[in-house]
């Protein structure tokens, strides 16, 4: 758990997404944090692609 906190506080790009990762950090599971970031970036990429019209029709799902 200490190593997980050290890993996230040493990389500056994690400061942008600390508010999104409070729940996985409280759990303290490193794999849960990795999965959370993976699905978060996947969601953002799909949302950006659908906004430019070159991705799946994501707005119909919403």
From TrEMBL:
Top-level taxon of the source organism: Eukaryota
Transmembrane region(s): 6-23, 30-52
Keyword annotations of the record: Membrane, Transmembrane, Transmembrane helix
Name listed for the protein in its UniProt record: NADH dehydrogenase subunit 3
Natural source organism: Phakopsora pachyrhizi (Asian soybean rust disease fungus)
């Amino acid at each position: 758990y200490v190593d997980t906190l050290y890993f996230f506080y040493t990389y500056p790009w994690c400061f942008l997404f600390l508010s999104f990762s409070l729940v996985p950090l409280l759990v303290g599971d490193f794999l849960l944090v990795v999965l959370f970031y993976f699905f978060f970036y996947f969601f953002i990429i799909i949302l950006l692609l659908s906004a430019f019209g070159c991705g799946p029709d994501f707005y119909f799902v919403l």
